[in-house]
Amino acid sequence: MSEVPHCYRHPGAETGIRCARCERPICTDCMVDASVGFQCPDCVRGGGGTGHSRTADQPRTLAGGRITGGDPHLVTHLLIGANLLVFLVAQIVPRFIDETVLIGLAFDPALGRVVGVADGEWYRLLSSMFLHEQIWHIAGNMLLLWFLGVGLEEQLGRVRFLVLYLLSGLAGGALTYLLAAQNQSSLGASGAVYGLLGATVVLLRRLDRDLRPVLALVALNLVITFFWENIAWQAHIGGLVAGVLISYAMINGPRERRGLVQWGTCGAVLALSVLLMVLRTSALS
Q1: SS3 sequence of 23-40
Q2: What proportion of the chain, given as a percentage, has pLDDT over 70?
Q3: Are 122 and 170 contained in the same domain?
Q4: How many CB atoms lie within 10 A of CB 13?
Q5: CA distances from 20 to 64, 69, 75, 164 (A)
Q6: Which of 21, 53, 200, 263 has its CA at a distance of 20 to 30 angstroms from the CA of residue 242?
Q7: Name one GO molecular function term (predicted).
Q8: Does any domain span residue 195?
Q9: pLDDT at residue 46 in the model
Q10: Whole-number Å distance between alpha carbons of 140 and 80
Q11: Which range marks the domain in which residue 118 is found?
């Protein structure tokens, strides 16, 4: 039987709670309620406790990211702003959507030429992640991005959160490109948002929080994915799976090899996404 840890500030107090940032054991007298999980007094003050190295004393997120000053949800705000800006441009600029939507290979009458990723327009895999056509589409995605992003960004840190978002969206786009009909277009941040949804499940499980609300949200979105018309289910599933894999490595990776596990997993997801793109391009060429 493993020994029950003791609070780092009160050695006589047994506890099963750990700080969401530095992971030191904390008792009920020391824990400070945060937006996601509990934090120790030292991390709340932005410092470290005694008996730790200077590096360990630097405030870190649960995933090991550096905690910086300023807006703790900066990346979430910037991503929402980028999506809204692209949406506005799409409403104003003629044929902007035709030039940026994800599509395998097809002749576009509006542009008068063949378009698609297989025709060398690889940028569509990225641009389509920020592209929305209907107001309800962007409203739903941005609401979920805000709801899920604020907690994840706090626990992962800015860089890791941004990487999670972009790789989830790219994985969703790659699976769509691989499996969808070559002339079927796809757009939206749903793949990236589904990655955040999967990451939230991993995070709440790590923090031993009630999973029922988020699992109900996952179930609802999967029902919409498979029973709502004109939805690219491949983007949703690809993003969800990528989000779970990446977040699990970021949140549950061993502390002594944390960087290797985290960035190695991100590299593997990126490599697999690129492989799917290359295979599809070869099939369409």
Answers
A1: CCECCCCCCEECCCCEEC
A2: 91
A3: yes
A4: 16
A5: 10, 18, 20, 19
A6: 21
A7: peptidase activity
A8: yes
A9: 61
A10: 12
A11: 74-284
Interval 48-60: pLDDT, tens: 444 444 444 456 7
What is the band of 41 on the pLDDT scale with cuts at 50, 70, 90? confident
State how far the Cα of 123 lies from the Cα of 127, in Å rounded to an integer.
6
0.85 exceeded by the pTM?
no
The 10s digit of each residue's pLDDT in 94-109 is 899 999 999 999 998 8
171 burial class (0-12, 13-18, 19+ CB within 10 angstroms)? buried
Tokens 């025709």, residue located: 119
Look at residue 67 and tell me if it is in a domain: no
Pairing of strands 32-33, 38-39: antiparallel
Note whether residue 65 is domain-resident: no
Residues, the chain, total? 285
Amino acid identity for residue 41 in this structure: P
For residue 66, being part of any structural domain is answered with no
Record the tokens describing residue 239, joined without a space. Answer: 């993003």
Q: Which residues contact 37 (CB under 8 A, 6 or more apart)?
A: 19, 20, 62, 155, 207, 209
